Amino acid sequence: MAGRTVAENRKARYNYFIHEEYEAGLMLLGTEVKSLREGRANIQESYASFENDGLYLVNAHIAEYGHGNRNNHDPLRPRQLLMHKKELSKIAAQIQRAGKTLIPLSVYFNDRGIAKVKVGLASGKKQHDKRATEKERDWNREKQRLMKDH
């Protein structure tokens, strides 16, 4: 189970310029951890925002645990992200000053089996930036084919 990626936001690098990446812990309920271990999570439409008392992961879907009882969790509830205060203040300043956003890139279990989220400090891409990224990716793929043939 160690080092296993549970969910990945593959569209994030296409839609955003990722400037910095941070690792954050997740404050989860027991049924959420069990559901994550089954690999039932989706972070495609989620983002992180500062609420009154901390940083929260909003709109991340962790499916209800199948064997849970009436105390099962709400799949879309906001979950607190755990980071050092110094990192939080640095991120808050970037969001306020530069108009950047904080998006989750992946949810995974670290070597000790603890659920972590890799979040990226990002700014949005325009349509022409997305086309340039796609063109570069196609060129790299074609270059690999040419090198393989020779």
TrEMBL record:
<feature type="region of interest" description="Disordered">
    <location>
        <begin position="122"/>
        <end position="150"/>
    </location>
</feature>
<comment type="similarity">
    <text>Belongs to the SmpB family.</text>
</comment>
<keyword id="KW-0963">Cytoplasm</keyword>
<protein>
    <recommendedName>
        <fullName>SsrA-binding protein</fullName>
    </recommendedName>
</protein>
<feature type="compositionally biased region" description="Basic and acidic residues">
    <location>
        <begin position="130"/>
        <end position="150"/>
    </location>
</feature>
<keyword id="KW-0694">RNA-binding</keyword>
<dbReference type="Pfam" id="PF01668">
    <property type="entry name" value="SmpB"/>
</dbReference>
<comment type="function">
    <text>Required for rescue of stalled ribosomes mediated by trans-translation. Binds to transfer-messenger RNA (tmRNA), required for stable association of tmRNA with ribosomes. tmRNA and SmpB together mimic tRNA shape, replacing the anticodon stem-loop with SmpB. tmRNA is encoded by the ssrA gene; the 2 termini fold to resemble tRNA(Ala) and it encodes a 'tag peptide', a short internal open reading frame. During trans-translation Ala-aminoacylated tmRNA acts like a tRNA, entering the A-site of stalled ribosomes, displacing the stalled mRNA.</text>
</comment>
<dbReference type="InterPro" id="IPR023620">
    <property type="entry name" value="SmpB"/>
</dbReference>
<dbReference type="InterPro" id="IPR020081">
    <property type="entry name" value="SsrA-bd_prot_CS"/>
</dbReference>
<dbReference type="InterPro" id="IPR000037">
    <property type="entry name" value="SsrA-bd_prot"/>
</dbReference>
